[in-house]
Amino acid sequence: MLRCAVLDDYQEVSTSIADWSSVADRVEVVTYTDHLSHEDWLAARLADFDIVVSLRERVPFRATLLDRLPRLKLLVASGMRNSVIDYAAAERNGVTVCGTASSATPPVELTWALLLGLARSVVQENTALRAYGPWQSTLGADLHGRRLGLLGLGKIGSRVAAVGLAFGMDVVAWSRNLTKERCAEVGVGLAASKEELLASSDFVSVHLALGERTRGLIGAPELALMRPTAYLVNTARAAIVDQDALLDALREGRIAGAGLDVFDTEPLPGDHPVRSAPRLLATPHLGYATRANYATYYGEAVEDIRAFLDGSPVRVLP
């Protein structure tokens, strides 16, 4: 019987949220709830597995790891795009890589949870209420009539824009290749430049893919352009925003606050400065972690495994 490792199953739902019975007679499934960040530890853990199911981009499968896993034949990664898998090394080692569908809706919803939580100081007021602290200690930031600046207007960014428009916000967007025609389709304005968007927006939300042109796109000079009353939300990729520069801006009160769901190191170490940063509303990379999305991830992972065992792999990446 083949052996399958399911990695980083933090919520312990991988085998209950999907039906694995169709492969149960051919595959032994072992789930892991912890995260191993060191390649040596991963190589040791995965040495005896033929199949690995990895959630999103939590575990990098670089050539140095794949070369140490001669038994591995199938790698399933949720989503249809993964930047931490060395596909050439996988092919060289005879490893088939398959993906799954992934909904854009959950990260859109979490973006608004963070933005609204910041605007109305939800965590601070809830904490005070439960601790018998001051009754109404903050003044909320209005959304109606304020400017929402979107860095990126793709599948997620355009849906975030729709919600902003429903709130009566003035929504503008920018990315290097964004056109007036695309903005018109979504019903938003096209910012003249990244700098103009940052300087004029009351809320800025990041919805770009990570690449060489977007890595470090928002650094200290860009953060300095933002208003002291403005908020920044990043649910895309941590490396798009210079985390150290953002933490400095928060500590010095140069922006009103930030909402983060992505970080330079995940899971965050106990002593990471993000954990103690002021003016920060942070969630542990929950953007895609919803019941429906997980049912898709693991349900289609089972389909991928079954198809591979039957000799006709589906959703092959890249």
Write structural notes for this entry.
With 318 residues, the chain is α/β, with parallel strands linked by helices. The chain folds into two domains: 122 residues, Rossmann fold, CATH 3.40.50.720; 178 residues, Rossmann fold (3-Layer(aba) Sandwich), CATH 3.40.50.720. The longest helix has 19 residues. The relative contact order is 0.14.
Succession of helices and strands: EEHEHEHEHHEHEHEHEHEHEEH
How many β strands by DSSP?
A: 12
Count of the domains? 2
Radius of gyration from the alpha-carbon trace, in angstroms: 21 Å
Structural class: alpha/beta
Which superfamily, in CATH terms, is the homologous superfamily of the largest domain?
A: NAD(P)-binding Rossmann-like Domain
Low-confidence stretches: none
| Measured distance between first and last alpha carbons | 28 Å
Mean pLDDT: 97
What's the CATH topology label of the largest domain?
A: Rossmann fold
Q: What topology emerges from the helices and strands here?
A:
Layout: E1 2-6, E2 27-31, H1 39-46, E3 51-54, H2 63-66, E4 74-77, H3 87-92, E5 96-98, H4 105-119, H5 122-130, E6 147-151, H6 155-166, E7 170-174, H7 180-186, E8 189-190, H8 194-200, E9 203-206, H9 220-225, E10 231-234, H10 243-251, E11 257-260, E12 280-282, H11 291-309
Parallel strand pairs: 1-2, 1-3, 3-4, 4-5, 6-7, 6-9, 7-8, 9-10, 10-11, 11-12
Helix pairs in contact: 4-6
